[in-house]
Amino acid sequence: MRLQSKLALFSAASKIIILLLLVAGLPWLVNKVALINADARLMQKEDKMYQIIEEQGIESFLTSESGAYGSYNLFREEFISLEEISSGKVINSIENSLRKVDNQVVNYRVLSSTFDLGGKRYLLEIGRSLATIHNNSKTLQTYALYFLAAVVLLTVFTDLAFSKVLLRPLTLIIKRLQRVEHPSTFTPQKIKTSTSDFLYLNNTINAMMGQIQEAFQKEKEFIGNVSHELLTPVSILQTRLENLLSDPDTPESMLEKLVDNLRTLHRLKNIIQALLLISRIENEQYVRNEAVDIPQLAEEVAEEIKERAEAREVELKVDVTGEYTLAGNQSLLFTMLFNVVNNAIKYNKPEGSICLRGQPVAAGYELTVKDTGVGIQEEQLPHIFSRFKRLHAPDGESHGLGLTIVKTIATFHGIDLSVSSVPGEGTTFTFQFPKEV
């Protein structure tokens, strides 16, 4: 998962957790706030009631008959009562209380307050129904939930946008590295950012790739020197041995040893040339500017190697259809197919067969080389492209680089190579060529 996605996911998850915690505690909090507001409103009405009593006199509320005053609004949501009490009684509180109104019990939030006036003590009660308070709190909860959800969504989208802007330098660095097919094609670049971490990362990558490019350049020079230093003495030795072999004065007992030495030198020369070929391909020393007709190339490989197949009594069949052209190196691609078909002949059974089949597919072009040979053990399949890994060499001439060359050329051309095999039944190499551009 990308860093930006992880940051956004973490931000969203943390906000959702906070929202859930708020939702869990919201009813209690809103109810508490609603009660505080209700108490404040009751105290405001208490002050207003005292002001009215002071202005109009308590006689305007108390009648001589009952000596008390009571008033309820239409829906019994609020009430005010005033009555004379004994002088020794003092009540000052705000609490929940049940009151019977019109034969109906209603739960009120009641403010009770005593005061003295004209040598008498009075009790003032102002109440508000708890049902009304709870209804108001539910309304507050609903709007609070909507507000919190909107805030969470807004902050999530804001975090997404901010993280995208913040991580843009990292995205540019990653895309630049993805475009690098070979260290030699890398070009150091500066990035515009005020984040010191990204600047440090970019500078570190530039320095590291510079060291890699320098190492590759030294390797190229080393390979050039090795090719000259190794091939030249090998060729000289080969010439001298050939001269000794053709010299009539050479004792007959030495001829067989000379032939063995020449065979060893020939094998050494092939190994050096194979290693040079692999290194040059890996170092991008070959061009890929030729339009290679893959079906035609398969036909040419079959034509080139058919005599070797006939000599080993192996039937070679070619079944390539469709048209497909790859921008690549004709010589390298020929070597790639030739090595695979040659191995199929070398490790085949007497009167066995090899089939080259090619056809256009949705992903480009697919070419398979299927034989009826000895096959490859399953545990050996992951190692068949490793250098100097000799799986089976009945003729003793294999040096373990043939399939390495095949894999290197395939990778160089962006070809997907896979192998399947059944011991005792045969092996299938599948080349998946990319789409034509």
TrEMBL record:
Signal peptide boundaries: none
GO molecular function: kinase activity
Record localization: Membrane
E.C. code: 2.7.13.3
InterPro entries attached to this UniProt entry: HATPase_C_sf, HATPase_dom, His_kinase_dom, HisK_dim/P_dom, HisK_dim/P_sf, Sig_transdc_His_kin-like_C, TCS_sensor_his_kinase
CDD domains reported for this sequence: HisKA
Sequence ranges assigned to domain Histidine kinase in this UniProt record: 225-437
Main location: membrane
Reactions it catalyzes: ATP + protein L-histidine = ADP + protein N-phospho-L-histidine
Keywords: Kinase, Membrane, Phosphoprotein, Transferase, Transmembrane, Transmembrane helix
SMART domains named among the record's database cross-references: HATPase_c, HisKA
Stretches that traverse the bilayer: 7-30, 143-167
Protein name: histidine kinase
Organism: Rufibacter sediminis
